[in-house]
Design a protein that fits this description.
The chain has 66 residues and is mainly β. 0% of the residues lie in helices and 27% in strands.
Length: 66
């Protein structure tokens, strides 16, 4: 489970493959629902990449200090 503001590494992304290998921040305040088909919104990836939708298994939480 993720929280808004969590920093995550995108290990896969059906929505935009250019985001793979980059880090971003979770935008959602609540767990994703049917509107996004259970995918989390990840923002602040790059100024060239708009926010993307990723399933939880496509994300890894980045711990501070790493």
């Amino acid at each position: 489970m993720f929280n808004a503001g969590d920093k995550v590494l995108i290990v896969a992304c059906e929505d935009d493959p250019r985001a793979v290998g980059r880090t971003g921040r979770i935008l959602d305040e609540v767990p994703p629902g049917p509107l996004t088909e259970g995918r989390w919104t990840v923002d602040r990836i790059s100024w060239l990449i708009a926010p993307v939708l990723c399933h939880a298994h496509e994300l890894r939480k980045v711990t501070p200090g790493r």
